[in-house]
Amino acid sequence: MTEKTFSELKKKSRSSAEGLPRFRLALMGDCATQHLATALRGAAMDRGVNLDLWEADYDQLQAQILDDQSELYTFEPAAVLLYLCSEKLYDKFAKCPLEQREQFAQRTYEGIAAYWDRIIATKSMQILQYNFVELDDRVFGDYAAKNDGAFITQLRQLNELLRKGAQQRSQVAILDLQRVQNELGRRTFHDEKLYYIAKMPISLQALPAAADIAVDRVCIMMGRVHKCVVLDLDNTLWGGVIGDDGINGIQIGELGLGRAFTDLQLWLKELRKRGILLAVCSKNEKDAAMEPFLHHPEMVLHMEDIALFVANWEDKASNIRYIQQTLNIGMDSMVFLDDNPFERQAVRALIPEICVPELPQDPAQYLHYLRSLDLFSTVSYSETDQIRTRQYQEESSRSQAQQQFASYDEYLESLEMLACAAPLDGFRIPRAAQLTQRSNQFNLRTVRYTEAELEAVAASEDYHTLYFTLEDRFGDYGLIGVVILHKEDAEAAFVDTWLMSCRVLRRGMEEFIADKIVETAKKNGFKRVIGEYLPTAKNKMVRDLYAQMGFADLGEGRYQADVDTYQPHTTKIKEKTV
């Protein structure tokens, strides 16, 4: 949770946004939202995002959502943020007849879901919905827990209905405002006088945290996600110094503050299961550093949980760069955890892109602090995430094998690569949507898609989709590429999306995909394929890709291939049928 004050965010919101990436967001509520809008702009600016924000007038949700020509739709935001407050909800509940109160949550949910569906049907955009913070009128006291007609019971049921409704709609995300109130406490979160005077349900003290969770989601939608935690060891992952205290002297498990380190490791292991990579960067002798992972009975993390293990006496910034290059991920997708303030500051100074949390001095506070930062939010989850560490370990085996060959071609031949290309189906769409959200480097146009949007594209006669997988003798990369072709006219197919995982660079997969794009266009009666490169701060690696694949340069970032004269490439990849 942010440590910025509302005054600091207000000042930040007035800063120059020149050169910053822009995100269009609409804000609507049934209460006053002016101060929330200010906090949102400031929080976004603090993250390096120019938030182009449109704010609806007070309590105008229905008018804006139901009118197809309203300001909401003409603004054409990438997302709309909805804030319906518990105080207004209580006003409606108090007017509800006693015999209907047990159905209050269901009826309220149906009204909100109708808003969602109308927005989705009118303009395809993401919907960010704050859930309802708990407001207990204490009319029944603790007996409310047994009374389905009590307001607090209905409010809790409503939040659960919202959660389940969002599960059924990939374009809807629930922002957990209740968690913010839990962290701050109701007395801090809500200012009664401010609400009565200005109809503002969130106090000025709590506004930064409320804005922060919305901006978190915006950043994820822009492809800003953390994929890897780089871990120091001594006094970070366990108490003590392994080189001095030995395996029997470090604090882990029930020894000293060991339980705090055990709980941190349990959390890190859960992140690993969710698909976050764990790497080690330690100033230590490697054999000594690895010993707890191999032999300590109370260690939660083991060597199979670590994608890359680096322990030597080099400076940590250099080792982190090595980890980043080996894993082939963006530096801004990495989080570095170290108990030593000097090491943290040195890494921040030398690698400003990396996230370096300011760990508390007391290890007992590590886990609470890291959880509060909410660094690992995601918009999707797939089965592939569960095996990501194994895939990177397999990549390390490939790198070691490469050193045994005299030439790179011999090495590629030895991999025995098999690739598959096929239209997107229901099973692959979640992973494909995830790739569009997360891929920044090998991404020609950087168009983001939700699952629902990909489902519509895959079903449309105006589009042709392809997903790509790759495997070799070391393992299966899984789904590593997505292509979407759009019918530009009767003779031309436009490459709306071409993205690929950087893990398979220089394997011949770029050429394989380019050939499949042209082949698919030809099979569907097109004479030309039009490609486009839209530059971003992160996709410079594919700036010349179309030219390298044999497409003619049309100027202004557009390229063309004639399907009849296009020359396919020779690669070491064999095609595998589905």
- Helix content estimate: 40-55%
Span between N and C termini?
46 Å
Q: What ranges have pLDDT less than 50 throughout 5 or more consecutive residues?
A: none
Round the mean pLDDT to the nearest integer and report it: 92
| Sheet with most strands: strand arrangement | 15-16-14-13-12-11-10-17
Biggest sheet features: 8 strands, mixed
Task: Give me the number of helical elements.
Answer: 23
Binned strand content? 15-25%
What characteristic shape results from the CA principal axes? globular
| Derived structural class | alpha/beta
Please compute the radius of gyration using only Cα atoms: 26 Å
- Total E-strand runs: 17
Short description:
With 578 residues, the protein is an alpha/beta fold.
Walkthrough of the structure:
The structure is a single chain. With 578 residues, the chain is an alpha/beta fold. The protein has 23 helices and 17 strands. The protein has helices at residues 6-12, 34-46, 61-66, 71-75, 86-94, 104-122, 151-167, 177-184, 186-189, 192-198, 207-221, 242-245, 258-274, 286-295, 316-327, 341-350, 366-373, 388-402, 408-415, 429-438, 451-459, 509-523, 545-548; strands at residues 22-29, 50-55, 79-83, 126-130, 172-175, 228-231, 277-283, 308-312, 334-337, 418-422, 463-472, 475-487, 492-500, 528-532, 552-555, 558-562, 574-575. The strands form three sheets. An eight-stranded mixed beta sheet has the order 15-16-14-13-12-11-10-17, sandwiched between helices. Strands 2-1-3-4-5 form a five-stranded parallel beta sheet, sandwiched between helices. The chain is globular and about 80 Å long. It starts with 5 loop residues before the first helix and ends with a strand. The model has no long low-confidence stretch (mean pLDDT 92).
